[in-house]
Amino acid sequence: MIRDLKACFIFNPNSGHNARHPYLLERARKFVAANHLDATVITTERPHHAREIAKRAADDGCGLVVAIGGDGTMNEIASVLVGSEVMLGLIPCGSGNGLGRHLGIYGPGKGAFTTLLNGEPRSIDTGMANGFPFFNAMGLGFDAEISHRFNRLAQRGLGAYVRTALNAYSHFRPQSYTISAGQTKLQTNAFIVSIANSDQYGNDCFIAPGAQIDDGQLEMTVLKNVNMFNVVPIAVRLFTRTIEGSRQVQRISGSQFIIKRPCPGLIHTDGETYETDSTVEITVRPRSLRIMVPTETD
Where are the domains positioned within the chain? Predict the structure, then answer.
């Protein structure tokens, strides 16, 4: 299918894998040339540049815009394509790659380029949090704090993420939240409030096991308390898809959530952090983004 489309490949040199392996830029160029594609390969030069390039590509008639980067790069590009016929292609090269892993797109050396050639389009949901789109997960509390710290690091990766989490943990305290989801009302202190479109944060850390990315629903996971006695069992549950078995966890499914906290603060959307109001409204736009995914036989 890609051979019939005008395409644009957007390479973020600062994404985790790309920063360590800049040869991927040349690999993308060789892929375009070898397959005789009507495509350009463009490198981002500053924050939010991927969004600008994607908008220009869509306006110029591209039918496929490919993100070569992490979840942040994916989010910038996908945000431009929501509600259009332009497809997103994904070459996951970040530190977590949550959306790619959920969809079975594992990286440049694990079939991601082949998916662009032989895959099929799929329409997935888009989450919105106070106007900020997300496609994998958003959250408040500790994970927003970690994302804020992690994004300021020069060197990233799973090890850096774990060190950042440990450093942040000693200073973080659960916050008070009032949550409305349809007929469900919840008032609680919580360490993390996560709303997921896919089933995981990334690195096979499953915050919402069983989540479907195209069902018009989002999955809220409220993690109420983490302490020195339960942190290891909770971590094990996250990586074994059993987080719902923890007594500290409550799961709620819905298409709209209203979360109130004592004051404005951070949220993250696909790992990118923003300051926003004390009230956070989360909604879903069903099947509003087209993305190339592996076929069932791949």
Answer: 2-124+289-293, 132-286
Instruction: Give strand pairing partners of 121.
Output: 292
φ, ψ dihedrals at 293, nearest 5°: -130, 160
* pTM score, whole prediction: 0.91
Taking only the tens place, the pLDDT of each residue in 63-115 is 999 999 989 999 999 999 999 999 999 999 887 899 999 999 998 878 899 99
Which helix (H) or strand (E) covers residue 147, if one does? Answer: helix 142-150
To the question of domain 132-286 being in CATH 2.60.200.40, the answer is yes
Q: For residue 57, what pLDDT is reported?
A: 98
Using CA atoms, how far apart are residues 192 and 223, in angstroms rounded to an integer? 5
What letter would DSSP give residue 262? S
SS3 call for 263: coil
- Let me know if the fold of 2-124+289-293 is the same as that of 132-286: no
Say which residues have a Cβ less than 8 Å from residue 74's Cβ, sequence separation at least 6: 67, 88, 90, 92, 94, 99, 100, 135, 136, 270
What confidence tens digit (pLDDT) does each residue in 264-296 have? Answer: 999 999 989 999 999 999 999 999 999 999 997
Q: Class for domain 2-124+289-293, per CATH?
A: alpha beta
Mean pLDDT, rounded, of the chain: 91
> Rounded to whole angstroms, how far apart are CA atoms 203 and 20?
18
